[in-house]
């Protein structure tokens, strides 16, 4: 058995511990089934309850089993903690630690781009979580701001492993239907199903840019081809010269795209910021920087050295000097100052 599921009959005794509220973290889904996120209290501790309703004839959704099997063996300060699993005839409930918000909501509350110091702290934690799962041959496969939870201290934790996959599971290929469109790398958009940890690195790079500028890096609208055009407009149209083998990918149709040269970020970013972003957003997947190498990038040199040597389960906020700065932009402050956009004049970052 991959997981051990406690079985309880649904009863008033169980129900009274759960307080129904509005969906947390933007709602949830598993295996195509809508879920609810509630808040509960166990031994005085707030927890988040991801409730998935099941149809008797179909049983437990496979995505839910996969998420549970992965999370039960992942213990890290930057991965949401799964306390328990409750299985009844009608529902499957994941009992998670409770975190106050997610990165998407945080950026909505602080529009126009986050403080550079806070971006650095969030990015380090994101890469630290990725480094941990990648070292265990696990891909998240659905990185986006809604799946990055944030505590009141500023701790960032990877969540929603419903699409995650262990590469130790025998498989010739993976499905190309992964990752929300804006955070999907060009190789997957072009139909490749032979991908690796570079998939998550691209998503993290997109989130990096979004935190810096307060807007998505590649905001496609309708389909894979429009999303690719957004990428080519910034990074330049790929060809066999720049990406050997790209013409063999199923969706490669260069005649459908407008030719463009690579763009650059504006020169108002902190030290080494643009360099790290470019290393994470290499079009060729094998050229992308790895999570361990990204953590060692000079961009993070201003963080206290002990942050590099913490045990997996220790929060970076245990290191003296690590804290978030107050965001100068706040939706509740009409007179907030918004720093100039990082977007080039042609609307590309």
From TrEMBL:
This is Protein kinase domain-containing protein. Belongs to the protein kinase superfamily. CMGC Ser/Thr protein kinase family. CDC2/CDKX subfamily. The keyword Nucleotide-binding applies. Residues 18-300 form the Protein kinase domain. InterPro entries: CDK (IPR050108), Kinase-like_dom_sf (IPR011009), Prot_kinase_dom (IPR000719), Ser/Thr_kinase_AS (IPR008271). It comes from the Eukaryota. The gene is CDK15. SMART domains: S_TKc. The keyword Lipid biosynthesis does not apply. GO terms for molecular function: ATP binding; cyclin binding; cyclin-dependent protein serine/threonine kinase activity. One of its GO terms (cellular component) is cytosol. The lineage of its organism: Eukaryota, Metazoa, Chordata, Craniata, Vertebrata. Keywords: ATP-binding, Kinase, Nucleotide-binding, Serine/threonine-protein kinase, Transferase. PROSITE patterns: PROTEIN_KINASE_DOM (PS50011), PROTEIN_KINASE_ST (PS00108). It comes from Astatotilapia calliptera (Eastern happy).
């Amino acid at each position: 058995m991959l997981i051990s599921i406690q079985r309880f009959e649904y009863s008033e005794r169980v129900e009274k511990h759960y307080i129904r509220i509005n969906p947390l973290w933007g709602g949830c889904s598993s295996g195509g089934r809508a879920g609810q996120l509630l808040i509960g209290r166990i031994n005085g501790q707030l927890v988040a309850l991801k409730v998935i309703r099941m149809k008797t004839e179909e049983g437990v959704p496979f995505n839910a089993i996969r998420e549970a099997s992965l999370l039960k063996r992942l213990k890290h300060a930057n991965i949401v903690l799964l306390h328990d699993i409750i299985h009844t005839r009608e529902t499957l409930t994941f009992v998670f630690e409770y975190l106050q918000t997610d990165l998407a909501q945080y950026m909505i509350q602080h529009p126009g781009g986050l403080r550079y110091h806070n971006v650095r702290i969030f990015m380090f934690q994101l890469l630290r979580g990725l480094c941990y799962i990648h070292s265990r041959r696990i891909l998240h496969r659905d990185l986006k701001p809604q799946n990055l939870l944030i505590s009141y201290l500023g701790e960032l934790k990877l969540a929603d492993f419903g699409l995650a996959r262990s590469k130790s599971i025998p498989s010739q290929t993976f499905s190309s239907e992964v990752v929300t469109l804006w955070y999907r790398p060009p190789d997957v958009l072009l139909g490749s199903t032979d991908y690796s940890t570079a998939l998550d690195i691209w998503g993290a790079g997109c989130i990096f840019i979004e935190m810096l500028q307060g807007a998505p890096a590649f905001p496609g609208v309708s389909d894979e081809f429009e999303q690719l055009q957004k990428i080519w407009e910034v990074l330049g149209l790929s060809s066999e010269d720049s990406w050997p083998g790209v013409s063999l990918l199923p969706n490669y149709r260069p005649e459908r795209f407008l030719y463009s040269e690579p763009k650059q970020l504006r020169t108002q970013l902190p030290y080494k910021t643009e360099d790290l972003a470019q290393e994470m957003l290499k079009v060729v997947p094998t050229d992308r920087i790895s999570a361990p190498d990204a953590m060692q990038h000079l961009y993070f040199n201003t963080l206290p050295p002990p942050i590099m040597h913490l045990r997996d389960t220790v929060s970076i906020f245990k290191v003296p000097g690590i804290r978030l700065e107050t965001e100068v932009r706040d939706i509740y402050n009409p007179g907030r100052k918004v720093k100039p956009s990082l977007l080039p004049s042609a609307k590309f970052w």
